[in-house]
């Protein structure tokens, strides 16, 4: 009987290990030509540049961080509250983009956002030639 229980636990453990799971990643450098399966976190004060990269999850920029999304695809949201700089350049965002209190610059240029765009209390906004499918609110109207 004990052997039968061990086999059941081994089978369950094996299934869990083989199943596709989303993981979180931390970015504090340049990431080029990369696929990230899960959320991407930019820690406070870090600089993250994702170039020609696919993120299958959300991107979260922490306080005083710098996030540059260049020729990338994000299959989730971008959230940045209190970041220093956020730039979305020639990229596709499948979810919402929510920014508040960006202290230096918030740039969206030649990008597509399939969700909502929310901008609140950001220091400097710039960019153009964007396609926003959802609603635009606050500073982004």
Note the main attributes of this structure.
mainly beta, 43% strand, 141 residues, globular, single chain
What does this structure look like?
InterPro entries: Autotransporter_pectin_lyase_C (IPR012332). It comes from Acinetobacter gerneri DSM 14967 = CIP 107464 = MTCC 9824. This is Polymer-forming cytoskeletal protein. It is a single chain. The protein is mainly β and 141 residues long. It has one domain (22-138). The protein has one helix at residues 2-18; strands at 25-26, 30-32, 35-36, 40-42, 47-51, 54-55, 59-61, 66-70, 73-74, 78-81, 85-89, 92-93, 97-100, 105-109, 112-113, 117-120, 125-126, 131-132, 136-138. Strands 1-4-7-10-13-16-19 form a 7-stranded parallel β-sheet, with no helix packed on it. The model is unreliable at 9-20 (pLDDT under 50).
Number of separate domains: 1
What is the ordering of alpha helices and beta strands?
HEEEEEEEEEEEEEEEEEEE
On the 0 to 100 scale, the average pLDDT is 89
The geometry reads as globular
Helix content: 10-25%
Q: How is the biggest beta sheet arranged?
A: 7 strands, parallel
| N- to C-terminal distance | 67 Å
Work out the helix count. Answer: 1
Beta-strand content bin = 35-45%
Classification by helices and strands: mainly beta
Report strand order across the widest sheet: 1-4-7-10-13-16-19
Low-confidence stretches: 9-20
Q: Which value, in Å, is the CA radius of gyration?
A: 19 Å
Number of strands: 19
Keywords: Signal
Protein name: Polymer-forming cytoskeletal protein
Signal peptide: 1-24
């Amino acid at each position: 009987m004990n052997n039968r229980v061990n086999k059941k636990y081994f089978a369950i453990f094996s299934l869990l290990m083989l199943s596709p799971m989303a993981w979180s990643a931390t970015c504090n450098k340049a990431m080029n030509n990369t696929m990230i399966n899960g959320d991407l976190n930019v820690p406070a004060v870090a600089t993250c540049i994702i170039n020609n990269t696919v993120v299958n999850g959300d991107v979260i920029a922490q306080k005083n961080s710098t996030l540059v999304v260049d020729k990338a695809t994000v299959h989730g949201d971008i959230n940045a509250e209190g970041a220093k700089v956020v730039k979305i350049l020639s990229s596709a965002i499948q979810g919402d983009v929510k920014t508040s209190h960006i202290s230096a610059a918030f740039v969206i240029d030649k990008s597509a956002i399939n969700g909502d765009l929310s901008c609140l209390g950001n220091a400097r906004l710039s960019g153009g030639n964007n396609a926003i499918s959802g609603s635009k609110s606050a500073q982004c109207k």
